[in-house]
Write a structure and sequence with these properties.
The complex is a heterodimer of chains A (254) and B (408). With 254 residues, chain A is of the alpha/beta class. Chain A has helices at residues 50-57, 80-89, 106-115, 122-135, 151-163, 181-196, 208-211, 237-253; strands at 6-19, 22-35, 39-44, 65-70, 73-74, 91-94, 169-173, 200-204, 216-221, 224-230. Chain A has a single domain (39-51, 89-253), classed as P-loop containing nucleotide triphosphate hydrolases (Rossmann fold), CATH 3.40.50. In chain A, 36% of the residues lie in helices and 27% in strands. The chains are: A alpha/beta (254), B alpha+beta (408). Bound molecules: adenosine-5'-triphosphate and magnesium ion. Magnesium ion binds next to α1 of chain A.
Chain lengths: 254, 408
């Protein structure tokens, strides 16, 4: 267990929702370890507990019972403020619905996590935010407002925001759920690049082809993990994008 | 999180909702402005009352017929006639703490010069009256005790009379004959301009003639006088002077020890106090009405902040998801409401002072903006900001990140 490569270790996670008399076991005894440099895609039927699991991993929600060790730290014994600090300094969370602030420029959105970090001054904050935006290919849209950006671009702003605090892990709940396949591939291209640089990524996805970009696939069913397999024929997003480009060129020449 | 960063966060969020922020501020602006303007008007009239009462002479004493009605109306003060000319003479002769005494008869009259006609007031007094009230003349001369003895038909006039009868304030009316209730009076002097008193009365709209002249030729009574004006030899002994006058008059009026006074002796400070109290009550009344609008403004802030918290629940969720603590959210919302109320307070102060000046300029109403009223209303608006901002802010801060994010 004392593996330094081991970023996340959860054990016997149980999450039970109670609405009236009905109990829903969203998570039913989930144990999992995630190693440094891993790129895991979580799949499973709707309602199988994927989002519930991700929210707990992202320290946004508490399990009913279980154990959660993040970089050797026992997360569940932390109070709210400590959890906020953890989210701020170690985690980057990406949502299906982007969740960037409206009427706030891309740059200000990306600066946001740093505003809640005492150790970073105004100049460094701006620099880091600009770098993060550059790394997701939005260097030229720094001052754009969300309503001037496409869905894919908004999601990239969200990714830049997740990256800006140099997190040890990025968690994404259906990051491509609201995007078309081409744009989804572009997001995957960014993820693969980040992963190649050593950033650990856990993402939830419904789409089998998106899962192919990850290194291993975890399957949820009824609140349990039923499989955790390495991806056999892993796809490269950059290459896939080239293929699509070639295809559309063919089409337009016809 | 640094407070500077939080200020920036709050500023950005206010800036995103300019119109809403401004409308919220408007409640505070109007509240603070009206508190300041009301207090300024109240304080202005207070000081004006004090000044014009003081202008009557600081140690003057007024004796009017009728019982003292302070603390319960017993009798219409001027409906009775109990003061006689000889009372005034006795006070002059026997009261050692009194140095000047004048009987006063006043009457509304019609003054005519050529084709000009003017309704005004004539005062019958002796030359002591001018000394007690520190009245001076700009031209001509004051009538003499000899004029009084022979009931000479001479008079002093205020500038309003000059203006209305001679067409020009600066005309020289000395030596001219005017008809006052068809009795010809020769103008011997013009009084220095006094302007309006607190109650808007034109103090220059007056004719002053020797007491005997008015009594003999115009008054209905040869025995009784309307009032007596006196002055004490010093301000310190003014109350002793009042006692001296009272006991003298009781003796002269043959009042038994069990009888109430059939006259009232008032000093300048008594009158000052009465009007001071009235003006204070008025100020408090005005200020409380204005405070209500400030309170309504505060509730406006709370309303907007509550709406804002609900509307921005998702935003709060996002902020928490990326590391904002409950405290950060609390401070952000508090800063927003404090900024609104502070900015509103400052603008309100400027507006309140402007309104006060305008009232002074166009309404002719005296206003005095005091530092304490500015501080008070600003403090009040700040407290309102904190108080009404706190509840919605705490509500926001207590949200669970995941609940806030799920909020639709
Ligand atoms: N706040 C909640 N209150 C009650 N039940 C909940 C709540 N959130 C989730 N659930 C239930 O928990 C179960 C797991 O939900 P979860 O959102 O984790 O599913 P999911 O795998 O993410 O589904 P999808 O693929 O549709 O997003 C579902 O049955 C859901 O109804
Ligand atoms: Mg889900």
């Amino acid at each position: 267990m004392a593996n330094t490569e081991n970023i996340i270790a959860v054990k016997n996670l149980i999450k039970t929702y109670r609405t009236g008399d009905i109990e829903v076991h969203a998570l039913n005894d989930v144990s999992l370890t995630i190693n440094k440099g891993e790129f895991a895609a979580i799949m499973g039927a709707s309602g199988s507990g994927k989002s519930t699991f991700m929210n707990i991993l992202g320290c946004l929600d508490n399990p009913t019972s279980g154990e959660y060790i993040l970089e050797g730290e026992d997360v569940l014994s932390r109070d709210k403020n400590k959890l906020a600090e953890l989210r701020n300094s170690k985690l980057g969370f990406i949502f299906q619905s982007f969740n960037i602030l409206p009427r706030t420029s891309a740059l200000e959105n990306v600066e946001l996590p740093l505003l809640y970090n005492n150790k970073i001054g105004a100049k460094e904050r701006r620099e880091k935010a600009l770098n993060a935006l550059k790394s997701v290919g939005l260097a030229d849209r720094v001052n754009s407002m969300p309503n001037q950006l496409s869905g894919g671009q908004q999601q990239r702003v969200a990714i830049a925001r997740a990256l800006v605090n140099d997190p040890i892990i990025i968690m994404a709940d259906e990051p491509t759920g609201n995007l078309d396949s081409r744009t989804s591939y572009e997001i995957m291209e960014i993820f693969q690049k980040l992963n190649d640089k050593g950033i650990t990524i856990v993402m939830v996805t419904h789409e089998a082809d998106i899962a192919q970009f990850a290194r291993n696939n975890i399957i949820f069913k009824d609140g349990k993990i039923i499989a955790n397999n390495p991806v056999k024929e892993r796809k490269n997003a950059a290459e896939e994008l080239k293929k699509i480009a070639a295809l559309s060129e063919e089409k337009s020449t016809i | 999180m640094r407070i500077l960063n939080l200020l920036k966060v709050a500023y950005r969020s206010l800036n995103r909702n300019k119109l809403r922020s401004f409308l919220t501020m408007l409640g505070i602006i109007i509240g603070v402005a009206s508190v300041i303007a009301m207090l300024a008007i109240g304080e202005g009239s207070n000081q004006n009352i004090k000044a014009s009462i003081a202008s009557l002479g600081t140690n003057s004493i007024i004796i009017i017929p009728g019982a003292n009605f302070q603390g319960g109306v017993r009798q219409g003060a001027s409906s009775t006639q109990t003061l006689k000319l000889e009372d005034a003479e006795a006070i002059a002769a026997r009261c050692e703490l009194v140095n000047h005494v004048s009987p006063v008869d006043q009457k509304r009259v019609q003054a005519i010069y050529g084709s000009k006609n003017w309704g005004t007031m004539i005062l019958g007094v002796n030359e002591d009256y001018l000394i007690i009230r520190s009245l001076t003349i700009t031209s001509g001369s004051v009538f003499t005790p000899a004029d009084d003895r022979v009931a000479a038909k001479v008079c002093l006039v205020g500038v309003t009379i000059v203006f209305n009868l001679f067409g020009d304030e600066n005309a020289n009316p000395i030596g001219q004959i005017i008809r006052v209730n068809s009795i010809p009076f020769k103008i011997v002097g013009v009084l220095s301009k006094m302007g309006q008193n607190t109650f808007g009365q034109d103090q220059d709209d007056i004719i002053i003639a020797p007491f005997t002249t008015v009594q003999k030729r115009m008054s209905s009574s040869l025995i009784y006088v309307n009032s007596i004006l006196a002055s004490g030899i010093s301000e310190d002994q003014i109350n002793d002077a009042v006692d001296e006058i009272s006991s003298l008059l009781r003796e002269k009026h043959k009042l038994a020890p069990s009888d109430d006074n059939d006259f009232t002796v008032r000093t300048q400070s008594d009158i000052s106090n009465i009007f001071g109290t009235i003006s204070k009550v008025m100020t408090i009344l005005l200020a409380s009405i204005a405070s209500i609008s400030l309170l309504v403004g505060g509730i406006g802030i709370m309303n907007i902040m509550l709406v804002s918290v609900t509307e921005r629940t998702r935003e709060i969720g996002i902020r928490m998801a990326i590391g904002a603590k409950g405290r950060d959210v609390l401070i952000q919302f508090m800063i927003e409401s404090i900024v609104i109320s502070f900015a509103g307070g400052l603008i309100g102060i400027a507006l309140g002072i402007t309104v006060s000046e305008l009232v002074a300029k166009f309404g002719g109403w005296p206003v005095v903006v005091t530092v304490s009223s500015v501080l008070l209303s600003f403090l009040f608006s700040a407290v309102i900001g904190v108080f009404f901002g706190w509840y919605p802010a705490r509500k926001a801060a207590r949200l669970n990140p995941i609940d806030a994010l799920r909020y639709e």
